[in-house]
Specification:
Distance between the termini: 134 Å
Largest sheet: 10 strands, mixed
Number of domains: 1
Radius of gyration: 37 Å
């Protein structure tokens, strides 16, 4: 088995240039705050927990003999990479570069535990989905790089096609969530709160972003309503003027119709005179 320190340095050389600058983040007590907090804006805290990525995998060249030489996974409180044969056919490798990799029949499950306690400060806006997707992309890239290193050491093949994702998306530090009693619990399709913690879990990043964006819209509802009220007041003042303008327009239309009627009558009279004159000339002749 290769020395773990050498492996860590190898991976660090690959991942550092990619991960360090992606979100321009700084860490403070496990909090990834991103840019400086603007006190005029509202924020919540996001934690991507138990992130699992499912990627296509072919076991044809997998070196199972080398895997079996790893220590048994039943070892307690170890930081060493361990192995066990799971459900007779699945190969589970734990503590591999901060991940747990399970090789299934046609796919690899990568449970990403890198920075498992890391939390992100998310601005409550209608564009929160973009920020959460950036974080998800980082976790995807980490997982794929770890799987590539696993293949380099133990064989197998992957086209690195992402087949599925699973995660527990925890939100906290938001007004409505903070008001939920600590001991209140529920388990629904869209959200759950199953622990005595000041957070709510969502089964998918889209549900978490929808919640944040909905809260952003709600916070803007009152200013929008007030603005609409101002518009309505302005319109009510404008109505009498519009009424008078409308009356003037209608009168103008009426006058034009009357004018046209007079012109039509004059035209008819002139035609009758011409006809009478013509008839008289014929008679005289």
């Amino acid at each position: 088995m290769e020395n773990q320190k050498d492996i860590a340095e190898y991976v660090k050389k690959i991942t550092d240039p990619i991960f360090n600058g992606v979100l321009h983040e700084t860490n403070n007590n496990q909090m990834s705050v991103g840019h400086h907090k603007d006190k005029s804006k509202r924020y919540c805290i996001y934690n991507l927990h138990n992130y699992r990525l499912y990627i296509d995998f072919n076991k044809t060249n997998l070196n199972t003999k080398k895997l079996r030489k790893l220590p048994n996974t039943d070892l307690k409180n170890t930081v060493d990479t361990t192995y066990r044969l799971k459900n007779i056919t699945e190969h589970e490798v734990n503590n591999f570069m901060g991940c747990r990799i399970t090789i299934k029949k046609t796919q690899a499950e990568v449970q990403n535990k890198i920075g498992i306690k890391k939390k992100y400060l998310i601005e409550i806006t209608t564009d929160a989905n973009k920020r959460l997707k950036e974080i998800t992309t980082i976790k995807d890239n980490e997982s794929i790089l770890v799987l590539k290193e696993f293949i380099r050491q133990y064989g197998g093949y992957s086209g690195f096609k992402i087949l599925n994702r699973h995660s527990e998306n925890k939100l906290s530090g938001e007004d409505s969530i903070d008001k939920i009693p600590l001991k209140m619990k529920w388990h629904g399709d869209i959200s759950k709160k199953v622990y005595n913690e000041k957070n709510v879990e969502f089964p998918d990043v889209s549900f978490a972003s929808n919640y944040i964006e909905s809260r952003a819209i709600e916070s803007q509802a009152k200013p929008i309503f007030n603005r609409l009220g101002g518009i309505e007041t302005s319109l009510s003042k404008l109505n009498p003027i519009l009424t008078e303008v409308n009356k003037s327009i209608q009168l103008e239309i009426k006058n034009k119709k009357l004018h046209q009627k007079v012109l039509n009558s004059m035209d008819k009279t002139l035609k009758d005179i011409r006809n009478n004159l013509n008839q008289k000339r014929l008679t005289d002749f």
